[in-house]
Design goal:
Elements: H1 5-10, H2 15-24, E1 30-32, H3 37-42, E2 43-49, E3 56-61, E4 68-73, E5 77-82, E6 87-93, E7 102-104, E8 110-114, E9 123-127, E10 132-137, E11 144-149, E12 155-160, E13 164-169, E14 177-180, E15 186-189, E16 195-200, E17 203-208, E18 218-221, E19 229-234, E20 240-245, E21 249-254, E22 260-265, E23 277-279, E24 285-289, E25 295-299, E26 303-308, E27 317-320, E28 327-330, E29 334-339, E30 348-350
Antiparallel strand pairs: 1-30, 2-29, 3-4, 4-5, 5-6, 7-8, 8-9, 9-10, 11-12, 12-13, 13-14, 15-16, 16-17, 17-18, 19-20, 20-21, 21-22, 23-24, 24-25, 25-26, 27-28, 28-29
Length: 351
């Protein structure tokens, strides 16, 4: 692999990140740290990847090869990172089509991304190995605003401003199903791929992925929420749903019964940016961006844990690394947040 200036810059690792990685991989024993409020409060930026010429518009960790992170940016680039080794592995430019949303497939060398050129709303399956388009997915007539890939299968969902949700098999160019909606849709599969959720307006509609054509088996009202849905996600155990809206509300909902577990307010989004939030791996904590550029953390049971301010005026993207004590934020740079071990009294070591 050719060593580029970008790779050298990305390897300038902060002390907190270096110390955390050393503790996490020492010998045959592995550090296990429970995600507590104290751990959250100690979180700090340990590593920053720079070099973007625009804001990061999307990012995704691979569900199994969890050290791999892919980002999309307004500078029309797709970048692949190895967060464990603190290096940017590859940058691919999509100058012709632009890029807005990006996500991994089940194969960490293949990503799915949406266009941002205003004239071609096709989705593209891209091989990161050789910068080759494997397949095009045509069907939407307006901008795609939500994508969810089923990690257990080869299916994915896409939601568009054309007020449709399309269901796809990555092996076929034509969609496998269509749902019409009455607003901007946010879509998500659960981790098992058995159920998916579609949010728009003030409701979440739950579908059985095997017989979606029969319509939703449950419809959950989300309080008095009338703002457009931005992001919807399931917790890793499938028991909770996270929903964010343009008005700056972050909802946590029981996925079986539809009752509200918690609801939080951040600054509303006044730009075309996305308000994103993410569950911790255990589903008991949430991180969220805010319209004023801040990052918030909450304990689902007890409320706000921490807030990290910013001089930015747009919400950062946030994403928790699966199975890890690290989350990332994306704005005009990519930041990796890890616990500051010097601020924690002790942590357990297990085999």
């Amino acid at each position: 692999m050719e060593i580029t200036d970008e790779m050298l810059k990305s390897m300038e690792v902060g002390l907190a990140f270096r110390d955390y990685r050393f503790a996490a991989v020492m010998g045959p024993r592995r550090v296990s740290m429970e995600i507590t409020n104290e751990v959250f409060k100690s979180m700090k930026i340990g590593l920053v990847f720079q070099g973007y010429n625009g804001r990061i518009s999307s990012m995704d960790f691979h569900s199994k090869a969890t050290n791999y992170l892919v980002t999309a940016s307004d500078d029309e680039s797709i970048r692949l990172y190895d967060t464990q080794n603190a290096v940017c592995l590859k940058t691919i430019n999509s100058k012709k089509y632009g890029v807005e949303l990006v996500c991994f497939t089940d194969n960490p060398t293949l990503v799915l991304y949406s266009s941002k050129n205003g004239w071609d709303e096709s989705l593209r399956l891209l091989s990161l190995n050789d910068n080759r388009f494997v397949r095009y997915f045509k069907g939407h007539l307006d901008r795609v605003v939500s994508i969810s890939f089923c990690s257990e299968k080869e299916n994915f969902l896409s939601g568009s401003l054309d007020r449709t949700v399309l269901l796809w098999d990555q092996r076929a160019e034509k969609s496998q199903g269509l749902l019409r909606v009455q607003g901007r849709p946010a879509v998500s599969y659960d981790d098992q791929g058995m159920v998916f959720a579609v949010a728009y307006g003030s409701h979440i509609r739950m579908f059985d992925a095997r017989k979606f054509e029969k319509g939703p088996f449950e419809i959950f009202a989300v309080g008095n929420e009338d703002s457009e849905a931005h992001v919807i996600k399931f917790s890793s155990d499938g028991r909770r749903i996270l929903l964010t809206t343009k008005a700056g509300r972050v909802h946590v909902i029981d996925s079986f019964h539809g009752n509200s577990i918690a609801s939080y307010n951040v600054k509303p989004v006044v730009t075309n940016s996305m308000l994103e939030a993410s569950f911790s791996p255990d589903g008991n904590h949430i991180i969220s961006g805010s319209g004023d550029g801040s990052v918030y953390a909450w304990n689902v049971r007890s409320g706000k844990v921490a807030r990290w301010g910013s001089t930015d005026n747009e919400p950062p993207l946030v994403r928790w690394a699966p199975g890890s004590l690290m989350f990332v934020t994306g704005s005009s740079e990519l930041s990796c947040w890890v616990p500051d071990l010097s601020k924690l009294g002790s942590f357990s070591v297990t085999k």
